[in-house]
Each structure stands twice: as C-alpha cells, then as structure tokens.
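[job 4471] stage=fold_predict status=RUNNING
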Amino acid sequence: MKNILFLILLLITVSFDSQKPEAYDTGEWFKFRIHYGFINAGYATLEVQEATKNNKKVYHAIGKGYTVGMSRFFFKVNDNYESYFDKKTNKPYQFVRKIDEGGYSKDQEGFFNQNTNKVLIKNYKDKTEKTFSVTENVQDIVSTFYFLRNHPAVNTMKVGEYISVDMFFDDEITKFKLKFIGREDLKTKFGTVPTMIFRPIVQSGRVFKEEESLTVWISDDENKIPMRIKADLAVGSIKADLDGFKGLKNPFMVKLDD
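[job 4471] inference complete, writing structure tokens
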C-alpha cells in the first residue's frame, strides 16, 4: 500500500475551466478522512500558501497524509508533499517529497529549470544528485492537482473521453490519463453535492484489481472540490471523503434535500 493513501488524493482529483474564475487561491485548505474497509485509517490535508521563488510570488502547496489509531500499529504512514509553482503558468519550480510508509521512506527535492527543461533531483537519504530531461509542460505530483483544476478541457468532455498530463514522478515522466464517466448527485456530510466523476487509468496487478480501479467525485462548480475517492485494491478497498474545508475562492454549491 505504499504511496496509496496520499497519492490517490493527489493524482485523481481534477477540476477545470479557464473560462470561469480560478478554482483556488492562497488560503484554501482541505481535510480528507480515509477509510480502509470499516476502519478509520487516517487523514490527509491539502493547503495553498504563498512563497517567493526567483524574486516573484508563487503558490506553495502542501499535502500531508498520516494514519491514526490502530492503523498505525499495522501500517504507519507519515507523508509530506510540497510544490512551488507559478501563479500564471502553473509550471513547477520545486517539489518536496518526504515520506515514511511502513518502513519505506524517501527524502528528496526536485528543482525545475524551466528554460532548459531539466529537473535536478536531490536525494538526501542516500546523498545523491541526478539531472533529468523533462517535457516543456511537465508537472510534479502536487502541481498536477492544481494544474488540472483550471484546465480548459474537462467541462466540455463527453462520457468516455480522456485527458492526459505529463507528470514527473519517481525519476520519470508518467502520462497521467483520466477518463470522464459522467455526473452524479452525491450525498455527503455537507449535503447533496452535484459532482463530476472521473477514473484514472492505473496499472493493474500487484496493487489495483483493474486499470479502472479508481473513481473520484469532484464538485461540479467553480471550485472543483474533491468530494470522494474510492480505490478497489488487490486486498480490499480504500475510500476517502472530504471531511472539512476553508478558504474556498468560489461559492460551494450544495442542493437542498427534500
């Protein structure tokens, strides 16, 4: 299950429509409750702050994931993901990945040179450095989430259509691919929320049952909030629900129940 609890939240959360107001701004904060079967396994948070890189103001997004209660005895998770990216182009300047998942750990930073399309990876655990060539519009794992929230394509997608993004992760570029499933009114702790449903294409086998084993529900409004994520694994299933939020840039749309 390494990387599953937190990466699911980051990778498959999407929202898009550059013709409308921006989906987020500094001060936005989400909290997710993660269930493994009937067990409350942990929580994950995502927030947007402001920082300075290359003498300009940029977004600094911070994601944390951790197990709680009895889950910590079986599989302890303490993850920290960060990204510094441009406010206008969304191109990343730097990312941080510091994780500890049941004994599997990483401590690294990546530094993007947007002029040469290179990324320098510093691994602090084994004290190594390596430079990789990347595509012009590549994203890191956290900036991908925010890049997609303002992408112009998705609101015009038809059921069954795909969208893809180049994402740099684990020393290589991954083609992150999403399939639009449809729309649904989702009952949540906040009320009934109109949502858009997507499925990313994942590799079946050791972790996931099938290529379409992940499903995500996104609020069908200008915020494009991740409301629910479900993953069918080779050994059970994981579900993450939005548990709290603040600092939304746009009104949160909820239907009145009869």
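[job 4471] summary: The first helix runs from residue 4 to 11.
[job 4471] exit 0
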